[in-house]
Amino acid sequence: MDKRKLLHGDWQGATSWVVILALVIIVFSFINPRFASIENLRNVLVQASVPLMLVVGATLVILMGSIDLSVQGIMGAAGMVWILMSPNARGGIDYGAWAWVVATGIGLILGLLSGVIHTLFRVPSFVVTLGTWNVGVGLATILYGDSLLPSLTSEALSQWPTRLTLGLPNSFWLASIVVLAGILLIGFTQLGRGILAIGNNEPLAVVNGVPVIPIKIAAFGIAGLLSGFAGILATMQLGSGAPGVGAGQLFTVIPAAVIAGTALSGGEGGMVRSALGVFLLILLNNGLVLAGVDPNYQSGVFGAILVIAIVAVDWPQRDRLRVAK
């Protein structure tokens, strides 16, 4: 597949979503001028950081025509391992950089485990990753225990995500690097092209010599690694360890990727559009809160706005859309 065509297609598909994001910002700024304040926009960037990291891994898996539901479990396990190896209220040894290595290693191992079971034993990805989710939650719960809350005692670590560098939060810079890496992986590596080939037509990919099993395992491994990384970042933002540190993230990440054009059937989509999908959901949620919408009605209003946004984006391309039943 031509690299330039692939990247152009990703950015071209993202154009409509950029317009939608601009409209969302304008509308909510009119409702509450505070929405467009620098302080709030920085807050949006911090809120988007974790799902942006997660959506890269999720997109890799979805592009193959698979699904990864293990996000929240891996986040909980990795986050708990990291905080217990970092300065925390329970004491213990501060392992410094090794805390990051071990925690993300847990994510990588769980991701690879999902990939191996899915490919070698031909178990549907949603079943395998649902099991991995529970394994991660179980590990996090055991480590959490029943003793003192494992809260961060290092202000440098707890404040790092929101600290500004060149005017933007550190957590957003980190997430941006991950998104950029995802774009480069899909557009400029054999792994990325293999992922797209599998999603487009797996039997044909096999016939053409694409190493399907190693590529699938690698994609799940990367997704697990990024979930572990996101679990660390979420734990830093929370300031304490919790088995449920990733609660709700799955229901942001998967819809964000799909509504922005990453097909669940695989082979179509890209990192740019998935990232824009994350921003749309985060902006909508933030805007509804500042607009004073009753929490009891936020879900309904959120869904209605989301449907309108999807129709507005897809309507110009309606003649080319194919309805699947």
Q: What's the number of structural domains?
A: 1
Radius of gyration: 20 Å
* Largest sheet composition: 2 strands, antiparallel
Strand order of the largest sheet: 1-2
Tally of extended strands? 2
What is the annotated CATH architecture?
Answer: Orthogonal Bundle
Terminal residue distance: 28 Å
> What is the H-and-E element order?
HHHHHHEEHHHHHH
CATH C-level:
Mainly Alpha
**CATH topology name:** ABC transporter involved in vitamin B12 uptake, BtuC
Strand content: under 5%
Describe the structure.
- The protein has 325 residues and is mainly alpha-helical.
- It has a single domain, classed as Orthogonal Bundle (ABC transporter involved in vitamin B12 uptake, BtuC).
- 71% of the residues lie in helices and 1% in strands.
- Strand 1 and strand 2 (168-169) form a beta hairpin.
- The radius of gyration is 20 Å and the shape is globular.
- Mean pLDDT is 89; it is low at 320-325.
